């Protein structure tokens, strides 16, 4: 799942595993101020959902 800071502090929303590949998939609800979100946004062009 990569190297993420404070990974153990995240509450799992949805986690799945495919034993045939193997691939893990996880969804987490994070805030924009989260360290890992800030690092990902520095490296990749990740759009945010803006309220209307």
TrEMBL record:
Lipoprotein among keywords: yes
Keywords (A to Z) from UniProt: Lipoprotein
Taxonomy, superkingdom: Bacteria
Cross-referenced Pfam families: DUF576 (PF04507)
Family that this chain belongs to: Belongs to the staphylococcal tandem lipoprotein family.
Name listed for the protein in its UniProt record: Putative lipoprotein
Biological classification of the source: Bacteria, Bacillati, Bacillota, Bacilli, Bacillales
């Amino acid at each position: 799942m990569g190297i993420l800071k404070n990974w153990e502090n995240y509450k799992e929303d949805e986690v799945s595993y495919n034993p045939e590949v193997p691939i893990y998939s996880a969804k987490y609800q994070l805030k924009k101020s989260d360290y890992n979100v800030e690092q990902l946004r520095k490296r990749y062009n990740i759009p945010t959902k803006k309220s209307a």
